[in-house]
Amino acid sequence: MTIAVAGSTGHLGRLTIEHLVAGGTDPTTIVALARDTLRAQQAFSGGIQIRAADYDDTETLEPALSGVDTLVLISGNDVGARVVQHRAVIDAAKEAGVNRVVYTSMLGASAALINPMGASHAATENDLRESGMAYTLMRNGWYSENFIDTARQAVATGEILGSAGDGKVASAARDDFASALAIVAANDGHDYATYELGGDTAWSYADLAKTVTEISGRDVTYRDVSEREHADTLVALAGLDEGTAAFIATIDQSIRAGELGTVTHDLSVLIGRPTTPIARTLADALSAE
C-alpha cells in the first residue's frame, strides 16, 4: 500500500511521516508531497518518494497522486482559499484512483458556529462524502504548541490576556495528532470513521496561567476582557493588523462557547497512550530557551 502525505514539510506532515516509518511502514511506499521538493529532499531520506504537489497548481496534483492508495490530506493554511484548494486535491485524487483520503479537519467542525475555520472544514468534509472515495475524518483539536508564545509572553508580563471566559481547550501535542494520523493511514478499519480528537483534559485560560506559574516560577494571572477590547489590545500592544486581531478574538469566543473543549478520548484510544499534557509541552519549550 502506498501512502502519500500532503503538506509533508510542515510540522504535522513531517511528524506523520516519522511516525509512519517508526510504525513499520516501508519508506519506499511513502510519498512526501511538497511544493518545495528541495526542502522535502533535505527533510526525508531512506527511500521515501518525493513528488511536487501544490494545492494552487492543479496540474501538479494528479501526477503526484498516481499509484497512491491512501492520501493524508493535511488542511491548507490559507483559510480563505482552503475549500477550493482541498476540492482540487480531492478531484485529482479521484482521477488518480486513490482509494481513501484521511483528512485533518477540526474538532466539532460540523457543529462549530463561531470558529472562523469551521465552515471551510465542514465544506471539505462534505466534498469527501460526495467524492465516492473512502475517507476518514480526523477532527483535530488545538495544538498545545499554539500556546507556547502565550506562555513566553506571560512569563515576561505576568499576565495572559484573552476573551474566552471560563471556556476550555482540549489541546494535545502536535506529535499526538501525527501519531494518530499515521496509525489511521497505515491500518484498515477506519473507512468512513469520524474521530473527534483532543487532549484527555480540557483546561481554561485561568488553568493555563496556573500552569505557566508552576513551570516558570513567575506569578501569572489571566485577565478576561470583552471581544472588542481583546482585539483592540492586540492591535495596540502586539502590533497585529485588525483582521488578524479580530480572528484571534473570535477564536476566543469559540473557546468561550465550548467549541474547542470537547473531551472524547478518541485520540488517546487511537495512539494507545494518554495524550501529552500541555504542561509538558510548555515546560519543554520554555526550558529549551
UniProtKB/TrEMBL annotation:
Protein name per the record: NAD(P)H dehydrogenase (Quinone)
Taxonomic path: Bacteria, Bacillati, Actinomycetota, Actinomycetes, Micrococcales
Domain NAD(P)-binding, residue spans: 7-185
InterPro entries: NAD(P)-bd_dom (IPR016040), NAD(P)-bd_dom_sf (IPR036291), NmrA-type_oxidoreductase (IPR052718)
Source domain of life: Bacteria
